[in-house]
Amino acid sequence: MMSQLRNTTRNDLLMASDLIKAHTFLGRGLGLLGKKELNPNSALWLKPCNNVHTLFMKFALDIIFVDKNLVVTEIHRNVRPWKPLLVSWKSHSAFEFSAGALHTKEVQIGDQLHVSD
User: pTM value?
Assistant: First the structure.
């Protein structure tokens, strides 16, 4: 069964295909390293996570940081490869998307997200 990531504040589906969960130390450490691309309908959920980098990445990312309740705390669009560390002290986890995946989505700080399995 596919996981979905919804923005319940705006009643919008952010990701419907494949939510890759990186909830272990190794999973978070590897993240998307070595991948050439990420399906536009997929996302990587890093949990716990309050910082990301794109060192050694081969493609740009859209990144949403959220708190423990999945409330959006920060949004970064089109983060290019080799960007140093982005830190979000108020955040508990992060969702990484292929750059442009959020282009048509209206996501704002304070929006409530929901993951369904």
Answer: 0.92
